[in-house]
UniProtKB/TrEMBL annotation, chains A, B:
Coiled coil: none annotated. This is Glucokinase. Belongs to the ROK (NagC/XylR) family. It comes from Clostridium muellerianum. GO terms for molecular function: ATP binding; glucokinase activity. InterPro entries: ATPase_NBD (IPR043129), ROK (IPR000600), ROK_glcA (IPR004654).
Length: 316, 316
């Protein structure tokens, strides 16, 4: 593996970030461009290729030493076919993104959704290093996940495994964007926390949250910390649901580790203490005693390092 | 694989059944003895060995052609270490059952819990033949499961994966035997269905269920079929919860197939129609369109054929 490199591309709705990195995870170069999704499929594809070319150029690495490219993209997508099916903030519709990039650079190209890429990133470079079975859960605007089972990413039959934000937690709960009722995402995501706060303010509840023009989950965490009871209750309820979702994941997958990332995980001990409390109540002792629940460690570069890790895992 | 055989042992609380079978699943001989758990660990171990010896003798197969032994047992157990941890109807406590059987017959011996063995049985000989990813769910006294992922049994970190009967479906639901509240098993198992029926009768609800001295899930299905509204409501509620449990499994594992076995699955179309209806409401279309939900096909010999299949899978 000496002197071998891969390229990771984090394809997002606002920017495309590409990096050249070594197999040990050292980032040699990084190049970022705006996505400009409104310009359409071919323009964005061209920009992906440019990002890769620039990252290679800036790395000063011999192109022959670069063995593969990983692309992390929002889903739904078909990792096996290399196709992005459709996704709200990108122009691609049933678009095979792997083929043109592979034709251009003549090395294997791998595509996966961003939650899976982040899971692989934590597995290879982050909190999950050394485990065999781990689940990555991201809690931010939505709730998503990825699983490493027996040392391999587990994608399922239609590449939709670990769509855990759409696990039903409360059968008559609030309607989710997906159309179902009581999904984890509609009860415990950052978006759900902000929505419950807004509803409390609109109902005229006595809360310091009413001082803000726009309430996000961040304000709810801040005001709860300062002692606001309404904010505390909202968080307690949302994190109880998150705990149930994670309990169900543990009961189903029996993993060594659950890694929680995304904006809500930045809430720190208030999040992890509550999740662990619920897991201890609801899972078999043999399971919760043997499942570490820890925060993600890859920070700002989680997206592109996930794509790098995808390229490394698939090249092995 | 020509002329090769394995032995399967189905270790149950009331009887021990052993069979010699070919790799293609042809059962050559079968021998059964009562378990007599009350006689203790060594006595039951001796009886397991006797069952194997008798099955070999009756098969007339050359012992050299038998390559391995699979044992399916109630859990919790440690498949990797070959140990039964503890189980209500067997005398074994932290008992390594693999070692003495291996020493006796000098071929590899594999242990797994009965739900996993049944999953492997359906995968190799039953409804799951030809799939890569499938989940087996058994709904009878309790609810359990097993997963074949990428063509291999998935056991998890502590051999407790797919303890799906203890997925929380209703956070303030009835207390489960495990100590948690609102587990699938407490809401949708045969035991739960019978309990809800008994409660309805005790409350004096107008139902034909009050004609029975002892109500099991069987009576509830029968009376519901005959038009009893109380029985129909009980089933509708329980099967709705079972549907949510299976929806959550599909959302998490994205399998090609969910196979439902156990006594409750014998309810037939009333069970499968309701489960499919709930899954269509609650899962992504891309997932439910691509997940077959079907009844188990191995009947009376499911236990011993599961153990046979375990021996075959592990010998490959």
């Amino acid at each position: 593996m000496k002197n071998k490199y891969v390229i990771g591309v984090d394809l997002g709705g606002t920017k495309i970030c590409g990096a050249v990195a070594s197999f040990s995870g050292e980032m040699i170069s990084k190049y970022t461009m705006p996505t400009r999704a409104e310009e359409g499929e071919e323009a964005v594809l061209e920009r992906i290729i440019t990002v890769i070319e620039k990252a290679i150029y800036e790395s000063k690495v011999d192109e022959k030493e670069i063995v593969s490219i990983g692309i992390g993209s929002p889903g739904p997508l078909d990792a096996k076919k290399g196709k992005i099916i459709t996704t709200p903030n990108l122009p691609f519709k049933n678009f095979n993104i792997v083929k043109p990039v592979k034709n251009k650079f003549n090395i294997p190209v791998y595509l996966d959704n961003d939650a899976n890429a982040a899971a692989i990133g934590e597995y290879i470079f982050g909190a999950g290093k050394g485990t065999d079975n781990m689940i990555f859960v991201t809690v931010s605007t939505g709730i998503g996940g990825g699983a490493i089972l027996n040392g391999k990413i587990y994608r399922g039959n239609t590449c939709n495994a670990l769509e855990i934000g759409h696990m039903t937690i409360e059968k008559n709960g609030p309607r989710c964007n997906c159309g179902n009722y009581g999904c984890a995402e509609a009860l415990a995501s950052g978006t759900a926390i902000a929505k419950f706060a807004k509803e409390a303010v609109e109902k005229g509840e006595k809360t310091s949250l009413s001082n803000f023009e726009k309430i996000t989950a961040y304000e709810v965490f801040k005001e709860a910390e300062k002692g606001d009871l309404v904010a505390q209750n909202i968080l307690n309820q949302a994190l109880n649901y998150l705990g149930i979702c994670i309990s169900n994941i543990i009961t189903s997958f029996d993993p060594e580790m659950v890694i929680i990332g995304g904006g809500v995980s930045k809430g720190g001990s208030i999040v992890f203490d509550k999740v662990k409390e619920v897991v201890e109540q609801r899972c078999f002792k043999a399971m919760w005693e043997n499942t570490k629940i820890v925060p993600a460690v890859l920070g700002t570069d989680a997206g592109v390092m996930g794509a790098v890790a995808l390229a490394i895992m698939e090249s092995k």
